[in-house]
Amino acid sequence: MAETLIKVDLKQSAYENEQVHNRWHPDIPMACWVKPGEDFILETYDWTGGFIKNNDSADDVRDIDLSIVHFLSGPVGVHGAEAGDLLVVDLLDIGTKAESQWGFNGFFSKQNGGGFLTEHFPHAQKSIWDFHGLFTKSRHIPNVEFAGLIHPGLIGCLPDPKLLKAWNDREIDFIKTEPDRVPPLANPPFASTAHMGKLTGDSRKKAAAEGARTVPPREHGGNCDIKDLSRGSKIYFPVYVDGAGLSVGDLHFSQGDGEITFCGAIEMAGWVHMRVNLIKGGMAKYGVRNPIFKPSPITPRYDDYLIFEGISVDEAGKQHYLDVHVAYRQACLNAIEYLTKFGYSRAQAYSILGTAPVQGHISGVVDIPNACATLWLPTQIFDFDIRPNADGPIRHVKGGVDLPLSLDRT
């Protein structure tokens, strides 16, 4: 049996666990050490450290202080790892904690985080999903059940001082271009809610003031939210510091491509069983600047899809030049509108797209002026036929059930 090197008590504040951190900084001490070739288990909090509760209120999604996230287990030091190496991580297995057989999906308020479709869904809402082995369903979204593909939304290695400075410089400069934007363009360092693992004293204060927030993906990996990076995946991470400093968290039971709800996927606490190895000098040997990976050989078997197209013309009819972001948004909005014809609210439909094994594709980026993106919705997750037919849609979902909603406080 592999040893569990990091344990989390879901009844304990994540801030009290020294083997957990919520910022990226090269001075964060290693929580534990392993040798190349060893396998081990890390337990994780959900990304909010337990702030979101299993209830029928979205007040917690509305009120969460997003500067606390993400809570990551690690860093794990790897003996012999040096800057310029590749850290090879095999995700051997991933699972739910026995005492926490549920997860959540939500939309943040536009005033506190926002999201991909925040102009259409400006208020906080959430759905709770119960786990039944491989499968999940929600009391807030009837007539839907699907198999999960559990994966870490966030995994990566510590940056060195030069890379950390580059992150902070470019993101702070970006914020300055539109400082009053809601939601903001990026999230600068914020010491007050930083958790720096075992680091203490003046070193902790300095690192907390400099530590990069964990919200975006970056060169080291980080919050990439790739649903196919699941059990059986092999990942090649660039190493920037001695020991590598591997951390993981933000586990998802299931997610649609793009994690479009932002409080996205089905967020959960759990554990990751992994093995590490090294390719010495691998960054230069293979020209690696960002992680590369082999996907999981195990995926939910859905082979019938309705595919929704979107082009780079926005909701107001404004033309954009080969803008994939706009095109994918339109594909999502088209799918949401379609699902309302069967009785789902727009919020329920949005939550389905964020949680189910939906595929997103860049389908065309050369035919000026319009990029084309597609959203692939698996039909088999529904207990009724959603395909178009000559008789028109039948309203299978009855009124009276919707996602918990919380209006913004003024």
From TrEMBL:
- Return the protein name: Formamidase
Instruction: Show the NCBIfam families listed in the entry.
Output: FormamaseFmdA
Matching PANTHER family = FORMAMIDASE C869.04-RELATED (PTHR31891)
Q: Which domain of life is it from?
A: Bacteria
Q: Report a single Gene Ontology molecular function.
A: hydrolase activity, acting on carbon-nitrogen (but not peptide) bonds, in linear amides
